[in-house]
Here is the input.
Amino acid sequence: MTELSNAAQALLAALWMNPRFTLRYGMVENVPSPQARAALDEMVDAAILARHTEPGGAVVYSLAPAGRAMDRAKSMAFVKEHGSFALSVPKTEAKHD
Here is the structure.
């Protein structure tokens, strides 16, 4: 399996210890921060997370089968050190691709 960055590992441990957790961005007022987007994209590319776009444009991330099968645990110290970034930013502040 692909080695994840520290930021991706921290986000995975902080949010997906419950395998049924989903992260939803409405994409209207707020969007993923650059750091969160990079970590989320990395985990989607590694098939650890699944990304789904709803008809209204909202984006939902959930744990994929490979993510459910892997050890997601990290210490709180690790999460604090590598995961101390905003999950979202106002859409007006986001860079456009």
